[in-house]
Amino acid sequence: MTERTRVMALDVGLKTVGVAVSDPLRIIAQGVTTVRRTGLKADLAALEALVAEHAVDRIVVGWPLQPNGRPGAMTRIVDRLADALARRTGLPIERWDERMTSRLAERALIEGGARRATRRQVVDKVAAALILQSWLDARPPQDREQGETV
Predict the structure, then answer these.
(1) Quick one: how many helices (H) and strands (E) in the chain?
(2) pLDDT confidence bin for 1, thresholds 50/70/90
(3) Contact between residue 10 and residue 127 where contact means Cβ atoms under 8 Å apart
(4) For 26-47, how does the pLDDT look when each residue is reduced to its tens digit (9 = 90+)?
(5) Would 106 be classed as within a structural domain?
(6) What Å distances lie between residue 16 and 42, 67, 78, 87, CA to CA?
(7) Residues 6+ apart with CB under 8 A from 84
(8) Residue-range definition of the domain harbouring residue 93
(9) Any idea what the Cα angle at residue 75 is, between residues 71 and 79, rounded to 5°?
(10) Which of 14, 16, 85, 148 is deepest in the core (most CB within 10 A)?
(11) Running DSSP on this structure, what letter comes out for residue 129?
């Protein structure tokens, strides 16, 4: 039996990158950390280490579309990081619509009673988990069971 691998999702911001990973069966997403951005090389090194640590074979990057569905200013920033990460890791990278995930993450944390300081620390990894869960839920069950991606 082959070992199943995980999918990683990134919520890329100007100051931080929220990171989430799936379980090996690719059913559940879980936020794992927030990487503080310090420069492209350091960002890539931190993300590459997380890819290795979590046995990731695919990366889903939150795609910052405007409410009208068009790419926004953050799109170029996300593209730069995603393209550099693909070159560095050799892994496939899929862009996934992330509209409203940060707001949904913030709302969920508020409803859960998280204090403002706590919310600031975890909102990016919660947003990454929402992005990944949405991506996982869009996959047909047979693809998740076999550990395949479409």
Answers:
(1) 5, 5
(2) very low
(3) no
(4) 999 999 999 999 999 999 999 9
(5) yes
(6) 12, 22, 12, 21
(7) 40, 44
(8) 6-141
(9) 130
(10) 85
(11) H
